[in-house]
Specification:
alpha+beta, globular, single chain, about 25% strand, 10-stranded mixed β-sheet
Length: about 230
């Protein structure tokens, strides 16, 4: 579950981001060629939630909800959305040497977004930042467009935009991500490790993190007390 992926470090300098972006473009072209030669996935879970079943005894993923940003024949990439770290956004901005330039009484100032906790996105590349965010008029250096409404950005310029007051309206910042190799996620689902359901952006961006697990289950019409370790996949 912890297969390493090439994802740009979001505390990079502009020059190193440019180099990473060029390398990333080559990787994308190569991956596209591979995908064109292969069969499409029987079950594409991009833009879905993975909800840990009681049988998921892993100390990292037990009780977690993962938002899947990418799922193809080479594997899957997502971020845990309901496990906070002890760091808040204002502390993170300070650690990456960004000064909040929005005054408290300005229209752009959203105090909740600055004091909310940074999430633990998963055990892969825990020194890197991953920002899930709503659609933005700004173009960032390294963004995966998961849907027309949600992007995943790994470059520092998204935080620079937040500090300047013109960042995405909604976002979830995490350290680390969750990754699966080819067939690995499908195997875990087949062994009743995860429930799957189409994602609702409101759960990611609008609800407190402690309510996201139950809210994701409710998308399936499931009460948490109904879950048992032997339950099948919905």
């Amino acid at each position: 579950m912890t297969k390493q992926r090439k994802v740009p470090f979001f505390f990079q300098t502009a020059a190193s981001r440019e180099a990473a972006a060029s390398a990333g473009a080559a990787d994308v072209d190569e991956a596209s060629d591979d995908d064109a030669a292969g069969e499409p996935l029987a079950l594409n879970l991009t833009n879905h939630f993975l909800i840990a079943m009681p049988s998921m005894l892993d100390p990292i993923f037990g009780g977690s909800v993962v938002y899947l940003c990418e799922h193809n024949k080479n594997g899957a990439l997502g971020v845990v959305i309901n496990k906070p770290t002890d760091m808040t956004m204002d502390v993170l901005l300070d650690r990456v040497s960004l000064k909040l330039e929005i005054v408290a009484d300005s229209a752009e100032f959203r105090p909740g977004s600055i004091t909310r906790p940074v999430m633990f996105g998963g055990p892969v590349q825990i020194e890197r930042g991953f920002v899930l965010h709503s659609a933005s008029e700004k173009n960032f250096t390294s963004t995966i467009n998961v849907t027309s409404d949600i992007g995943l950005t790994t470059s520092k310029d998204v935080l620079e935009a937040v500090a300047h007051g013109d960042g995405p309206m909604q976002m979830l910042v995490s350290l680390g991500c969750s990754g699966w190799g080819a067939g690995q996620l499908e195997d875990e689902i087949g062994r009743n490790g995860w429930l799957t359901v189409a994602a609702d952006p409101a759960i990611i961006f609008d609800l407190p993190y402690e309510e996201r697990f139950v809210a994701a289950l409710k998308l399936l019409g499931i009460d948490p007390i109904m879950l048992t370790a032997e339950s099948g996949r919905a």
